[in-house]
């Protein structure tokens, strides 16, 4: 799949339909892949960290979660590029998984979130197979605890492990564990668990499509998010002006 260089991060030229088709091929072929779901904030974190840059640029897919990344790709000539938001991808893949028998493992969120996520989606899709849920503590795990986590996941044998630890923590976690886990797909989806369990409100659809979702989130959580957007947006725009997106 083609990629576009956005400030040094190689974002996949994809959309929601194409991403789901790629997941199906990986699972059918038994490929083990890592997927990064990248918005503007995640991209800025990644470009400032050589290790994170490598994770994003060597992933199976680095999908454009935010409209600014979609517009950057379209500016580079990839008109077919579309937004692949974490909550939308989670919902779409789980519906497909219920039909195809793919197994899931939810890892992340505050206490009880992963369990509630399983309940909500199994109510919607009774055939959905969730083989494990886990909400790790916010602190770093000890080596013994981490080894136990790996053993539990491998014993459960999920096709897909959904990681909701937030960026860039989830990308570092995936990079550290992809050679130790047997799941076909590891994918970090940030706050998607909280959106689907009602802990966070999502912006209206028109704001999502027009690139204004950031303003809704800032309105909802100004104290936590003001630096991300007030400082991040100018940094991103200035970077794009200096280094226009280009095909890789």
Chain-wise SSE layout:
Blueprint: E1 3-6, E2 9-12, H1 16-29, E3 33-38, H2 40-47, H3 50-57, E4 61-64, H4 67-75, H5 86-100, E5 103-108, H6 113-124, E6 129-134, H7 143-156, E7 160-164, H8 169-177, E8 185-188, H9 192-196, H10 205-209, H11 213-220, H12 222-230, H13 232-242, E9 246-247
Parallel strand pairs: 3-4, 3-8, 5-6, 5-7, 7-8
Antiparallel strand pairs: 1-2, 1-9
Helix pairs in contact: 1-5, 11-12
Pfam families: Glyco_tran_WecG
Protein name: N-acetylglucosaminyldiphosphoundecaprenol N-acetyl-beta-D-mannosaminyltransferase
Keywords: Glycosyltransferase, Transferase
Detailed description of the structure:
The protein is of the alpha/beta class and 248 residues long. It is built from 13 helices and 9 strands. It has helices at 16-29, 40-47, 50-57, 67-75, 86-100, 113-124, 143-156, 169-177, 192-196, 205-209, 213-220, 222-230, 232-242; strands at residues 3-6, 9-12, 33-38, 61-64, 103-108, 129-134, 160-164, 185-188, 246-247. The strands form 2 sheets. A 6-stranded parallel β-sheet has the order 4-3-8-7-5-6, with helices on both faces. Strands 2-1-9 form a 3-stranded antiparallel β-sheet. Helix 1 packs across helix 5 and helix 11 (213-220) packs antiparallel against helix 12 (222-230). The longest helix has 15 residues, at 86-100. The protein starts with a strand and ends with a strand. Keywords: Glycosyltransferase, Transferase. It comes from Kribbella pratensis. InterPro entries: WecG_TagA_CpsF. This is N-acetylglucosaminyldiphosphoundecaprenol N-acetyl-beta-D-mannosaminyltransferase.
